[in-house]
Amino acid sequence: MRVLVVEDEPDLQRVVAMALREDDYAVDTADDGEEGLYKAQAWDYDALVLDVMLPKRDGWSVLSTLRETKPTPVLMLTARDTVPDRVKGLNLGADDYLVKPFELSELMARLRALIRRSKGQPRPILEIGEVRVDTASKTVAVRGELAALTAKEYCLLEMLALHRGTLVTRTMIYDHLFDENDDSLSNLVDVYISNLRRKLGHELITTRRGQGYLIDD
Amino acid sequence: MIRSLRWRLQLWHALVLFIVLAVFGVVVYFLQWQTRLQQIDAELDRTAEVLAMRVRRLMPGPPFGRPPFEGPGGPPRFNQPGQPFPGPRGPNNMDRGNRPPRGPDDERRPPPNRPPRDIANDQTAPGPRGPNPRPPQFDPNNPSGRPIDNPPWQMSRWFDDVLRRFRDFGGPRGDRPGLDLPEEFAHLFEGPEDRRMYFLIWNRDGRVLEKSASAPDLPFPALHVSENDLPVRLVRHRAHFREVVLAGRFETNILVGRSLRHDIGLSRRFAGMLTLAAIGVLGIGLLGGWWFTGRAIRPLETMTKTAESISAQNLAQRINITETDSELGQLAVVLNQTFDRLQAAFERQTRFTADASHELRTPVAVILAQIELSLARPRSEQDYREALATCLRASQRMKSLIENLLVLARLDAGAAELRLEKVALDQLVGEAVELIQPLADQRKIAITCELAPVTVPADRHRLSQVLTNLLTNAVRYNRDDGSIVVTVSEEAETAVVAIRDTGIGIAPEHLPHIFDRFFRVDPARSRSEGSSGLGLAICQSLVAAHHGTLTTTSTLGEGTTMELRLPRGAKPPAG
């Protein structure tokens, strides 16, 4: 999962990005509204963490401009907690609202729920045959036994599971698994796929040669 | 006590209306009564005159005229027997004189050689004698007032003659000679008791010569005849009778009267109608008053409603003003202006609170998130150090913010205590420049000082705070290799500190806001440099507490000049 954090307070931006990375997200950051809008429009992020009070272009403006082209789920971060402020944010198309100061665990939980909902998977547990993916605890069980997956392997599986029944291209995988600073080798995805097949069973993931991968319904 | 303005107005209105109507009614009633009495009097007068004329026609020739006042040898003034009395109504007398009944009367006329003086005395004497007009010569009770040369028998004879004639016409009309009242005239003395008139005719003795059938028994009206022998007219009330007395006409007193009972009845009915009309007018007046007060008060009611509906959530509402010229319109204008100020103050306060909370929330969010992240799993010492450093930065920002907010709150409340002393302004500015010099050196900014020695009463610490803040801004918003010129000068009443930089300047649209709390021309830049957006607001509040002024002139891209003016005078700044 790849997330953009738009926050002008450097310390807060750093801490939030770090926390998300530790939670196996690929994280991009932006310091002001213009940069945030540019990045949000340039990439397909799984979610946006957007501060309201931003230099150059405030969060409301970024949100409304972004909504003209992209349905990326947006979690607004703001110090303004009055009802009119919240209503304004939600009316402009924010998917969730978090008032500063917030707790990181709440931010993570809301972000997970936001991404899940946006993929049309409201339940936190995805079941694919004998494989059971718990997106809340980020664990995978095969026939009731926990499978030992690395963070990237889990992210890939979760992505394929959330897009169940549709083709996931290699580009999409790269976009969503690695952040802007990651310069991974292209065959890394193949390695993750073979690892997943080895750990969870070979028939789970179908390969469309030259196109991408797919978990069948 | 009635609280409603409308009811009170109505009550006063009713009171005034009632008084006006009552006074008006009473005046109208009396006027109509007076008019009625005048009409009655005129009627009575007319009747009395007619009677007097009739009486005169009965006169047995003039027994005397106005007598000569000279001796008995004077020429006689009156006519020879058989000749008609040559009065002003000659033709009448002529008729009367030709009538057959007059023949036998002639012989009873006083002899022509009767001394006329007596008569003269008789006629003129009662005047000067005072209030008792009764001719004394015929009053046996009062013989003393008589002049000696006026033998009583002569006058007595004449009056007997007159009396007899009157008696003669006391009988049925037409049978005998008498007053010979015309039919329609006699009619006045007939009819119901409260409408008909009555008359009595006395001779000067008080003997009733003639009276109408309707006449009550009345005592002789004791009238005195005026000195110059003119007839006297008297109008009087007797019980509910109105009477006119003509005295001294042809030696008779004629009284004509009538009952007022009928007129009193009419007047009472008139009064009743007047009362009914007044009640009607009062009713209509009160209804109109109620309507008018309602109309007058309606704007007040709408104002009250609007003012009631204005609350913290709904400050934008205003009283709808249709007519600004009226008193209520002016009140509405004033109220609306008050609401404007209230709204502005409220919005400022709301913005300030929101800004303050925003500024405080961000460092708290940093601390909270950082600590949560650090505790999530074991970390290296380096990570902990970084985490603690982050928390320290956030805490320091909160501390400075809270301090600034407290300073502002104290200044707002007027509770900031200034420890005033004589401060050498040039020295203070010099110290502040020294303090800021390292910062300026970093960016190769040259600071030039032109300091004239001036002392002002000020709080050294606070003033130094202001100067440092202004100088910091001058450095922060300057360009590299720029310059700052600091001058201290004195004017008549004020000391002036001007700090001119060659920085980025302030756009005209931002200029009015730079002293607003939490206002930042460029939030990103200020935030990164640790500014809270309160510095200039605090400066201005502090300067205001010193009774000074802080003004800015700026050209975008060329630089900004901050001018600080402080009073030098003995006027001790309050606070």
State the CATH superfamily name of the largest domain in chain A: Response regulator
Spans where pLDDT lies below 50 across 5 or more residues of chain B = 65-152, 169-177
What is the CATH first-level class name of the largest domain in chain A? Alpha Beta
The tally of strands of chain A reads: 12
Helix/strand structural class of chain B = alpha+beta
Oligomer: heterodimer
Q: What sort of overall outline of chain A do the alpha carbons produce when their principal axes are compared?
A: elongated
Structure description:
Chain A is of the alpha/beta class and 217 residues long. Chain A folds into two domains: 2-118, Response regulator (Rossmann fold), CATH 3.40.50.2300; 125-214, Winged helix-like DNA-binding domain superfamily/Winged helix DNA-binding domain (Arc Repressor Mutant, subunit A, Orthogonal Bundle). Chain A has helices at 10-22, 33-42, 59-67, 83-91, 104-118, 151-162, 170-177, 188-200, and strands spanning 2-6, 26-30, 47-51, 74-78, 96-99, 125-128, 131-134, 139-142, 145-147, 168-169, 205-208, 212-215. In chain A, the strands form three sheets. A five-stranded parallel β-sheet of chain A has the order 2-1-3-4-5, sandwiched between helices. Chain A has a four-stranded antiparallel β-sheet with strand order 6-7-8-9, with helices on one face. In chain A, strand 8 and strand 9 (145-147) form a beta hairpin. The two termini of chain A are 21 Å apart. The mean pLDDT of chain A is 84. In chain B, strands 2-1-5-4-3 form a five-stranded antiparallel β-sheet. Chain B has a five-stranded mixed β-sheet with strand order 7-9-10-12-11. Chain B has a two-stranded antiparallel sheet with strand order 6-8. The A-B interface holds A 8-12, 14-16, 18-19, 22, 31-32, 53-56, 79-82, 99-105, 107 and B 354, 357-359, 361-362, 364-370, 372-373, 376-377, 390, 393-394, 522-525, 527-528.
